[in-house]
Amino acid sequence: MVFEQLTTLIGTSPMVILLFALLALWEGVWKGIALWKSGRHNQLIWFIFLLIFNTGGILPIVYLLFFQKKRAAAENKPKRKRRR
Question: Please, which of 3, 42, 67, 70 could form a disulfide with 14 given CB 3.0 to 4.6 Å?
Fold first, then answer.
């Protein structure tokens, strides 16, 4: 019923509508992860670009792979026990 209404409204086949819905879901997942990481690392410029531009998930994936701040090596080392 919903697909039929959208088909008459848009004039496309249900497969095209399904494709756009899957693309929107794909974009939303990657954008959400990238926005979360850029916000946690205080990278305001990346946060704004990721929020504004819809690139089908390409920009968030590029950010996550190459530009997000990596944890410092010191954070990954085990902590020493303090002597009293």
Answer: 3
